[in-house]
Amino acid sequence: MQTKPLRIGTRGSALALAQAHETRGRLMAAHGLPEDAFEIVVIKTSGDQIQDRPLSEVGGKGLFTKEIEEALLNRSIDLAVHSSKDMPTVLPDGLALTAFLPREDVRDAFISPKAKTLLDLPHGAVVGSSSLRRQAMIKRLRPDIEVVMYRGNVQTRLRKLDEGQVDATLLAYAGLRRLGLGDVVTSLLDTGDFLPAVGQGAICIESREGDAPTLALLAAIHDPLTECRLVAERAFLTVLDGSCRTPIGGLAEVDGETLTLRGCVLKPDGSERHDLERSGPVSQAEQIGREAGEALKALMGPEFLAN
Ligand SMILES: NCc1[nH]cc(CCC(=O)O)c1CC(=O)O
User: Fold this and answer.
1) Which residues pair with 90 in a beta bridge?
2) CATH assignment of 6-101+202-222?
3) Average pLDDT over residues 81-106
4) In which residue ranges of the chain is CATH 3.40.190.10 found?
5) For the modification S-(dipyrrolylmethanemethyl)cysteine, which residues carry it (predicted)?
6) Fewer Cβ close by (within 10 Å): the C or N end of the chain?
7) Are 145 and 127 spatial neighbours (Cβ–Cβ below 8 Å)?
8) Cα separations (Å) of 174 from 186, 239, 259?
9) Within 10 Å of residue 23's Cβ, how many Cβ atoms?
10) Residue 121 carries which DSSP code?
11) pLDDT higher than 60, residue 20
């Protein structure tokens, strides 16, 4: 058994801490270890310091992982807990996503004191969202709605909604549940119109490749089915990742031995949307994802990503 506690790195947001605690709880249960066998190390990232601009403007996803990955590489932590959705498709040399917890509900949630669903909102209503994907999907269904930039953590967003600054907001259901806020949800959005972001609802662990003791501990909490879905989705995203300013949705689901990936891209104003679906054997998850990405690229044409 180890003598030193296993150091679990995480951002300091309430959601990140909930995910780190869940991971620690699963490791304790799987290995019969006490809480003090683990140390939760909170790391402040550049992304946490920028609150006033959309992430797509300031450099995208890597902003929330850079300092954590540096801590992994210089061995001041042993593993890092992330929302898969926030992970860049390319990781630094020597690091990998080495475990996935069982995926939760992937859907986006609609939250509003004014209406039961997005379609019931009054004409010209204001919806807060900073996600390009959700913004484009909202505009596609409701071109009359004004979507305003809405960053900050989940609690801040809910407070702005309470104060009447916006009429509604959309958040990942999984994140709300992890925070014990599942009850604030007004309704859940259908994955047809609101195809989730790649990785939504799945907690992943990043660690050093070849760090055998850590990998051995993680094996006991790893969910291969979630990994398979994420491999397909991330391969799809890698092919499409020409720009972090393109609204993209992607979801892989498994039925028996068959994996089906649905993907879509939209113009940011919702004026155009292209959808694609591809199925195949689970064992070919990565290839299915790549092919779906290529096929969607061909479908949308070169000028789509240009502007
Ligand atoms: N970008 C922030 C972020 N990253 C992961 C989640 C939710 C949890 C998840 O999808 O696993 C959220 C908040 C949200 O989109 O509402």
Assistant:
1) none
2) 3.40.190.10
3) 96
4) 6-101+202-222, 108-188
5) 244
6) N
7) yes
8) 14, 26, 22
9) 24
10) S
11) yes
Reported as a single tens digit per residue, the pLDDT across 136-183 is: 999 999 999 999 988 788 888 999 999 999 999 999 999 999 999 999
Give CA separation, 132 vs 56, 76, 266, in Å.
Answer: 8, 34, 9
* Strand partners for 208: 95
3-state secondary structure of 100: strand
Question: Ligand 1 pocket check: which of 200, 205, 226, 229 to mutate, most ligand atoms within 8 Å of Cβ?
Answer: 200
Which residue's CA lies nearest to atom 9 of ligand 1?
201
* Cα–Cα distance for residue pair 67/12, rounded to 1 Å: 12
Q: Does the complex come out with an ipTM higher than 0.85?
A: yes
Which of 177, 160, 178 is CA-nearest to residue 169?
Answer: 160
Other CB atoms closer than 10 Å to residue 196's CB: what's the count?
Answer: 24
pTM: 0.94
* Given the residues 48, 52, 86, 108, the one annotated as active site: 86
Cβ within 8 Å of residue 193, ≥6 positions away: 137, 140, 141
- Residue 86 designated active-site: yes
With a 6 A CB cut-off, is 47 part of the ligand 1 pocket? Answer: no
- CA 85 to ligand 1 centroid distance, Å: 7
For the domain 108-188, what is the CATH superfamily, name and number?
Periplasmic binding protein-like II (3.40.190.10)
Confidence (pLDDT) at 59 = 62
Query: How many A from CA of 4 to the centre of ligand 1?
Result: 32
Q: What is the pLDDT of residues 205-252, one digit of tens each?
A: 999 999 999 999 999 999 999 999 999 999 999 999 756 678 999 999
**Residue of 15, 51, 81, 160 to mutate, ligand 1, most atoms within 8 A of C-beta:** 15
Q: Domain 234-300, CATH 3.40.1280.10 — does that match?
A: no
In this structure, which amino acid lies at residue 199? G
